[in-house]
Amino acid sequence: MEQNSEQKKDASFSNCLNFPSSSARLQPRRHSAIWTNKEVVNSSDQPITNLNVIQTEYAKTLHLKNIAVPDNDERISTSTEKQEGKVNCMTANLDKEKNIAFLLNELDVLRANNKKLQDQLSEKDKELKTLKLDLELQESVAEAKIAEKAAVLIEEIHSAQHDHDEAIMARLKLASEEKSDVCKQARLLEQPLETLENINPEENDMTLQELLNRINNADTGMAIWRTGAIIVDRIYRTQKQKKKTTAEEINAVIEERDAALAQCKRLEQELHHMKEQNQTSANNPRHLTAKNNQERALKEKLLAMQQEREAAIHQYKSLEEELQTLRIYYSVYDIHTALVCELSFKVPSSFRNGSTTPFNS
Fold first, then answer.
1. How many domains does the chain have?
2. What do you get for the CA distance between the two ends of the chain, in Å?
3. 33, 72 in Cβ contact below 8 A?
4. Contacts of 172 (CB under 8 A, 6+ apart)
5. Which residues does UniProt assign to the signal peptide (predicted)?
6. Is the pLDDT reported for residue 287 higher than 60?
7. 194 — phi, psi (to 5°)?
8. Phi-psi category of 354—alpha, beta or left, where left has phi over 0 and alpha has psi -120 to 50?
9. Cα 219 from chain centroid?
């Protein structure tokens, strides 16, 4: 192809070089026509006798002139048109070659730009992959931290719930033991009450110290028995009231335990739901902002759960202190009741032995 194009260029250049030679070939024809005209003019200078001959010769010369000149002009015009066509073809070929060279240069430039863009694209893909890997690593670390915190929190909640259940069971066991003891004491105290008369309503308003002073100041065994019966009835009613109060407190503690269990279950469900949402948002990189918001919400909920846990621990400690106070109070009250009962049962025996002052000791 390159050899053909070079041959065409050589031919076009040779045609351009031959263009003056063709014009040179046309010049003798013009000179011959002019020479014939000159000869006619010179011949007209000679003496001619016949005017018709002169006119005919002149007409012939004009006719020859008119014939020769247009023929030469047409040939010149056709040759010039051919030469112009060849020149146009040559210039068109040169323009095509220039355009081809320019397009090849443009193609090389575009290829270089395309290669640069491909290199940049590959680098961006690598950066995107590294960013995705870093993001997945951060998400896995965050999920591990959240799971660890949640596991620690759940373990603490379960341990606190276990301790609370053990405390409640101990309280129930102690309450049942106290109930059995009180029932036994009540049965023992009901036996002498059956033989006593009705108690005066005015004696119910007396305090325990007044009743004890009355026993100390009593002169007969019947008065001591009556005062002892009043004290036992007072103790029985007080125990009944305390039993009712204890049952109400136990029910309140059980309700608090149920509420704490329900809250723990609800928190576990919310934690599981948050984990599922975290997994779904991690699979979609468009939800990074939503994920960050969920992490913030989760942190806030964890803080709220820790505050609730601290409040529950504080409430648990206060309930433990209250329980210890009630135990101490009940133990002191039981000791006092036992002493009063022993005192009330020992007074008649002292009277049977003939002593008039039962509380000398």
1. 3
2. 145
3. yes
4. 250
5. none
6. no
7. -65, -30
8. left
9. 88
